[in-house]
Specification:
335 residues, mainly alpha, 15 helices, globular
Amino acid sequence: MASSPPETAPPRSAQRSGWRRLLSWLPTVIVVPALIALVWQHSSLERFASLVENARPQWLLPALASQIATYVFAALAWRVVLHRVGQQRPFGTLFRLSIAKLYTDQAIPTGGISGTVLVMKALTRRGVPGPAAMAALLVGMVSYYAADIAAALACLALLWLHDNASFAIVALVAAFVAVEIAIPAAVLWAKRHANHHRVRRWIDRLPGVPAILDAVADAPSDLLRDPALIAAAFACQLSIILLDSLTLWLVCQAIGAPVAFWIAFCGFSIGAIVAMIAPSPLGLGTFEAGTTGMLMVLGMPLEAALSATVLLRGFTFWLPMLPGVWIARHELSRL
């Protein structure tokens, strides 16, 4: 009996074609949860509108400006890396992509990876060479997680100094730091072992991953050993966290429940940590619970803590939703 010919893997072009078909559905993956959230959170939107109407306007405009500044620093984080590799792009383009990134990071909770990959693909489409775009992704990823870890540890230190660092909080921050270290460590390990036959055989089974892994392997590693570049990107990422905390502090002033800035910083940080550890579509519920609960632990009444969190969520998510959805869908549909 003649032996049958050995099975061959589908050609790489076919894999790429299948991956692109799958990628074409991502705009729907982003838009549909957003529409569902609008329906489910209709009462929250009404409450947000009511709070805005009754809040002190002199505090709301600075809160809005603080949120716009987060997109500026997100764009600057990419700009410094692209400048380093000689691939400058218009700041307006990077600003629009930063809106899509920050929205996508919330719509698809993957610890910042979803938005980062979106920006990388968008940069490649705009003529940035693959290795340079991937280098920007790696620097952005390392600085993003480093800023998250620094903020989490600073939050824990502040809570410890004010006798509010319970065992549950310490365990939550420890779990968060472990996850934040594990994700970039896994990516960097894959970069180093991309051509190992056992790793490659396992990776090749995952749709779309081989192409990304190849790009990671080809990315220049010298950028990750540039202290000045990492420090600049880290400063941009940390500024985003501080500006989000400032927004929470400002909305607390707006509703007549002023708090110290460190309380707003801890409230936002714990909310972000809870949303990362227990991801939900669009981060709905988990972030609100974490932030409201932390503000209450630090002395705010329930009504004030909930109102401040709803206002913060409105500025960080609901207001930029329409441009975020449109830009993300536009970018993904053209990949």
